[in-house]
């Protein structure tokens, strides 16, 4: 509001207003889990959803090191930021790190989803 008044403008300062959507099924929640954790991939491969990921191992390594995501916490990597995450609040869809990575690799192998 301050910025808009100061520069005589209106509207949202960034991309837009907050939006939310009700997650009404386990299937959709599992999809959202993968979607959210794969968002950082576009920082290293802008068109990965259409063109695919050529080096999946390097992509997973990048996700493991991306500090603004909870992905490292879910795959069992220890870091200080994990203290603010309540993993027990999320349903246990993945019974092991391998099953979580299998899900992520499945999405990385799938092209043209958005």
Would you give an account of this structure?
There is one protein chain. This protein is mainly α. It has one domain (26-109). It has helices at residues 2-6, 26-38, 48-51, 56-65, 71-74, 97-109. The longest helix has 13 residues, at 26-38. It is globular, with a radius of gyration of 17 Å. It starts with a helix and ends in a 5-residue tail after the last helix. The mean pLDDT is 84.
Briefly characterize the structure.
With 114 residues, this protein is an all-alpha fold. Helix content is 43%, strand content 0%.
Comma- or semicolon-separated keywords:
globular; mainly alpha; 114 residues
Q: What is the secondary structure topology, with strand pairs?
A:
Elements lengths: L1 H5 L19 H13 L9 H4 L4 H10 L5 H4 L22 H13 L5
β-sheet strand percentage: under 5%
Q: Are there runs of 5+ residues with pLDDT below 50, and where?
A: none
Number of strands: 0
Mean pLDDT, nearest integer?
Answer: 84
Q: Termini, distance in Å?
A: 32 Å
Main sheet, how many strands, which sense, barrel?
none
Oligomeric state of the chains in view: single chain
Structural class: mainly alpha
Return the string of H and E elements: HHHHHH
Tell me roughly what share of residues is in helical segments. 40-55%
Number of domain units: 1
So what's the overall shape? globular
Radius of gyration using CA atoms only: 17 Å
How many helices does DSSP assign?
6
